[in-house]
Design a protein that fits this description.
The protein contains 16 helices and 18 strands. Strands 1-9-18-17-16-15-14-13-10-11-12 form an eleven-stranded mixed β-sheet, sandwiched between helices. A seven-stranded parallel β-sheet has the order 4-3-2-5-6-7-8, with helices on one face. Helix 2 (about 25-45) crosses helix 3, helix 3 runs parallel beside helix 4 (about 90-100) and helix 15 (about 445-465) packs across helix 16 (about 475-490). With about 500 residues, it is an alpha/beta fold. The chain starts with a strand and ends with a helix.
Length: about 500
């Protein structure tokens, strides 16, 4: 996993990389530029003039390099100069300025005749911004936000602080895409900033993972390369018992779909034996919908027969306190709690102390605030999530875009997969089944949470590319097997 550093560490990280690799700072800038160009061409943005707002710092240097490469690829490019002779241009930006081909139009911001449409690239301020946007920069950001067309921010939208939360969108250059380099800046992962960041793209610029270890941070970003080593390996003599005996407790009158989704997702994730404990009156629904699952309609006392338990989807909250207390006292292994199990916990906080160590709680934002109280913003949620995980020695999975996993040792991990098309009823029940399945297969609780969240988001991406806004939870389940193929073989 890549460590997420503070914005003011970016230049130090670059300097350390250049010193140890022998690469010049300009060559590192060129690597970032080419990474952007590769992504840009993959998107097949064609037929429109490109306008690049550039400042005098290294973010502007990136923009000037991008202008050169795009012009060489036969795009029509105009560079909008957002600095003047009184502002020192950085050394590397000056190299790229001097290397601009004659075919690139250059115009000062003051003389810019704003077009009616186009592709706009923000290379104005970058991560170097400290404090509030200065007065001289406000007209530039304002004009940017008035443009009609596709908007792409380089590294970070101008006006957004690297650890900040947007309070006034008019002071930030809003983007449809943000293409960031090396590691995602923290503010790019906050839900409050989604409308200014747009879709987040991370470009690797070749900085060794070992360099990040020299900076203090408990924040990490999960990437595809982190997943294969966490997968358990099975051999040709493995049988269904080796793949885990799991119990899913949930479902109630009118809410059986939730536990059906959890059971199906657990099976698609690879669980060997899945049993659902439900109200006796609803037995037929499970047996008809998920014939591969077994059903128990009464309280089951021999919980030690199971490798993992997931509880909560569609369970209801009425008269569940004693049942949850029994489960917490009777099952010593980590378990997964979601949905109504979390709502019962929030109503009965004294039960928190009974949670088996390393149990995994998977709240969405509303369920989380019912557990910890109202939160001012995402940094506040992060703080409270970490405190809760450390206090009770549990793993807390705060669901949403870039789902946040808070671990008992204080580390917090942001997920990199997922799509807005997953915002559909039942998607959380799918995740419950997946994490419970990984636990049952013998994954450590940490790896079960990481693999569950990553594969869940990736399955959602695949489903979203097929169904778009029509994506439903069942579509996510059907794509789970494909995620294993992608992670293992690509």
């Amino acid at each position: 996993m890549i460590r997420i550093l503070k914005g003011d560490a970016v230049s130090k990280l670059d300097q350390m990389h250049c010193k140890r690799s022998g690469q010049s700072s300009y060559e590192l800038m060129e690597t970032a530029v080419l990474g952007f160009i590769h992504w840009f061409e993959e998107q097949k943005f064609t037929g429109q003039e490109i306008f690049i707002y550039v400042g005098g710092g290294n973010n502007g240097g990136d923009g000037l390099g991008i202008a050169r490469h795009l012009q060489q690829r036969n795009y029509q490019v105009t560079v909008v100069l957002c600095f003047n002779d009184e502002v020192d241009i950085s050394a590397d930006a000056k190299i790229n300025f001097d290397r601009l081909p004659e075919g690139v139009s250059k115009v000062s911001f003051e003389d810019f005749d704003f077009p009616s449409k186009g592709i706009f690239i923000d290379a104005f301020l970058g991560v170097g911004l400290k404090g509030k946007l200065r007065d001289s920069a406000r007209p530039i950001v304002d004009s940017w936000n008035k443009q009609q067309g596709l908007k792409i921010a380089i590294d970070i939208p101008s006006g957004l602080l690297s650890e900040g939360v947007v309070n006034d969108k008019s002071l930030v250059a809003c983007a449809d895409y943000t293409v960031t380099f090396a590691f995602p800046k923290l503010s790019l992962l906050f839900p409050e900033n989604a409308q200014v960041v747009g879709e987040l793209v991370l470009v690797d610029i070749g900085i060794a993972d070992s360099l990040y270890q020299e900076f203090e941070s408990d924040l990490f970003y999960i990437q595809k390369k982190d997943i294969p080593e966490r997968h358990k390996r099975f051999h040709r003599f493995s049988h269904k018992g080796d793949f885990g005996r799991i119990l899913l407790i949930g479902g109630s009158l009118g809410k059986m779909g939730a536990v059906v989704l959890s059971a199906k997702s657990a099976l698609r994730t690879g669980a060997g034996l899945v049993t659902c404990q439900i109200d006796e009156s609803e037995r037929f629904i499970i047996q008809a919908s998920v014939p591969e699952a077994m059903v128990i309609g009464e309280d089951f006392k021999d919980l030690d027969a199971f490798d993992s338990i997931g509880v909560g989807p569609g369970w209801g909250v009425d008269n569940r306190e004693k049942q949850l207390e029994f489960l917490l006292k009777s099952f010593s292994k980590p378990m997964v709690l979601d949905a109504d199990a979390l709502n019962v916990l929030s109503r009965n906080p004294e039960l928190m102390s009974l949670l088996p160590k390393n149990s995994i709680l998977t709240p969405h934002l509303g369920e989380f605030e019912r557990l910890v109280g109202s939160c001012v913003n995402h940094p506040d949620r992060m703080k409270k999530a970490s405190e809760l995980a450390k206090k009770y020695q549990i793993i807390l999975v705060l669901k949403g875009a870039n789902t946040l996993i808070s671990l008992p040792d204080g580390r917090q991990l942001f997920n990199s997969t997922g799509t807005h098309f997953m915002a559909t009823g039942g998607a959380g029940d799918v995740l419950t089944g997946m994490i419970t399945a990984f636990l049952g297969m013998g994954y450590s609780p940490e790896n079960a949470a990481i693999c569950g969240v990553f594969h869940h988001g990736l399955a959602g991406e695949y489903a979203g590319k097929i169904r778009f806004q029509g994506t439903i939870a069942s579509d996510i389940i059907e794509q789970i097997p494909r995620t294993f193929e992608f992670v293992e073989n690509s």
